[in-house]
Specification:
Length: 155
C-alpha cells in the first residue's frame, strides 16, 4: 500500500461521505470505498434500513460495487477504506474478495473483527492475510458514530 498520509485521508473522507448517506437514512453511519491505482472503484454505506437487507454493510456494498466495475470477484491490488473496524462478516468478505490492504478509521470494541474481538484479517490459520492500518481520521470516524447513538438515545 503506497499511498501517502494525505492520500489516505482523502480516501477516508470519501468513505465518510458514504457514512453521511447512511446517517441521512437514519442508520448506523459507516462508509467505505475501495481504491485501485489511486482510483475509487467501489463505494458503499450501511444500508440495512434503506434496503431492508441484514447483510448490507458498507463493506459488502462496496465489494459488490467494485466486483461489478472490475467484472471480477478478485479485488487484487486494491485497498479498502472503511470508517469503522470491519465486523466478522465483512472481515470474511474482505478475505473472499482477496483484498490485500485495509485501512480503517476507528475501532469497534463491540463488533470489530480486525483486532478488537477477533483478528480475522491477520489470522495465520487462514490462507488470506491482509495488511491492516488503523487510525486514519480516527476522531472524525468515531465522532459521526457517537453523534448518531447520542441522538438515537434521545429519541
Ligand atoms: Zn460488517
Amino acid at each position: 500500500m503506497n499511498y501517502t498520509v494525505k492520500e489516505k485521508e482523502a480516501f477516508m473522507r470519501e468513505a465518510l461521505k458514504e457514512a453521511e448517506i447512511a446517517l441521512e437514512n437514519d442508520e448506523i453511519p459507516i462508509g467505505c470505498v475501495i481504491v485501485k491505482d489511486g482510483e475509487i472503484i467501489g463505494r458503499g454505506h450501511n444500508a440495512r434500513e434503506e434496503l431492508q437487507r441484514a447483510v448490507m454493510h458498507a463493506e459488502i456494498m462496496a465489494i459488490e460495487n467494485a466486483n461489478a466495475s472490475e467484472e471480477s470477484w478478485r479485488l487484487l491490488d486494491c485497498t479498502l477504506f472503511v470508517t469503522i473496524e470491519p465486523c466478522v462478516m465483512c472481515s470474511g468478505a474482505i478475505g473472499l474478495a482477496r483484498i490485500p490492504n485495509v485501512v480503517y478509521g476507528a475501532k469497534n470494541q463491540k463488533f470489530g473483527a480486525a483486532g478488537s474481538l477477533y483478528d480475522i484479517l491477520t489470522d495465520e490459520r487462514l490462507n488470506h492475510r491482509v495488511e491492516v492500518e488503523t487510525g486514519v481520521l480516527e476522531s472524525e470516524c468515531a465522532a459521526i458514530m457517537q453523534d448518531f447513538f447520542r441522538t438515537r438515545r434521545k429519541k
